[in-house]
Amino acid sequence: MSTKRSAKVDLLARVRYSNPLPAPPCPPKLLNIPTNPMRYARPEFLNALANDMPLPMIVDAECGMPLDLGKWECLWEENGDDSTLNPDPNDLPKLDQKDAFLLADPSSSTGAYPVNGPSSSSGVTFGAPLAHVPWLRKTEYISREGMQRSTMQETKHVATAPIDVSREAQLRDIETSFAECNENFSLERLEHPNKPGVTAVDSYAILPDVDIWANQYDLFRFSERPGDRPVDVPDPRLDCAILRPMKTEHDSFLAFYLTETDEAAIRFKETRFGLAPYEVPENEEETEFHFVRDYETVKVEQEVPNEFLLVLYDGDSPEDDGKREKGAYYKNIERKMLLKKKRVNIYDQYEDKWEVIRLLHAPMSKEEEEEREEALAEVADPMYMFMRADQDADGEVDDTAGVPMHGNIDIVSET
């Protein structure tokens, strides 16, 4: 017994766009509009067809308008009279009536061909393109067109002042910004640009986070929650998972590993956070991470200029002992990746697939320490930019995407 199942496919999104319709060349059917049949015999009736049908033209080197410069002797004589080429603006020659339409403004005309044919009783001349055609159009199109037209008219009247981009002006603006942020800064004068009821309650200086600046951070987004637990069930294993790069003959993906129990994940995190950075614990027990599944990368953003790791520090922690001032410490994110579950293919030939990872902490090698110190010098060494300029003097491109920024961040609250 076989059954057939039919499903109706609907559009997921309505396509909305402005589609202005031209005026009809003749009265619509089933509508009694008084018109003069003689207008069909006028040459202007075919102007719309002639405008839409470009004709191939083969012209000579002078584009069909030969110019004989020998008629003007002033071009060849040293002190010739050039009044014929440059007439007096106060005494211009009389303009021929056949050429009067050439002086009209093209932007103010409604069509390519002037139409003076008979009109209907409503005063609309058939054959001339109209700016507004309300018939056979939805109301939403008309409203959107009106909004777009009003926006364009508003932008035309905006006068842009010239901007001084000289070196002296740039130095003046930079010095002024320091004065506004340090000398004339006041929380009472801060106003939210869009919410009148929101006021600033505190201010933090934006500083690079020296403790984690040498590390590289990537942001991973999963299409669904990883692991085997529902969304409403907490899973302490997720914040210590392992993503291992994998490669086959035709594909690259990530292998996802988790601890087998929650106790193992909690014990691993307590060991890691109970020590100083880069300190290796003594007599550490290995932590086992088991393979869960593979994830493929749907989208990879190599440059993330507007997302950071931000830590607000009030300066009241007894552990710092005054080594860290109050501020908002940030670290930039290197990459963003969107992951989704990879289908299992029994024919994939893995190069080195691991079912279990037994993890232990190890001290850093000399090469790793030198790489860390080089990355940390970007925010710890005041002479870093001068040394970087010396390195780029040989013709290398200076990449300032990772240069730390400074400024202020304000904490606001609604009243």
TrEMBL record:
A Pfam family annotated for this UniProt entry: Paf1
InterPro entries for this protein: RNA_pol_II-assoc_Paf1 (IPR007133)
Region (Disordered): 395-415
Keyword line: Nucleus
Keyword set includes Nucleus: yes
Keyword flag Nucleus: yes
The family this protein is said to belong to: Belongs to the PAF1 family.
Record-given protein name: RNA polymerase II-associated protein
Native organism: Agrocybe pediades
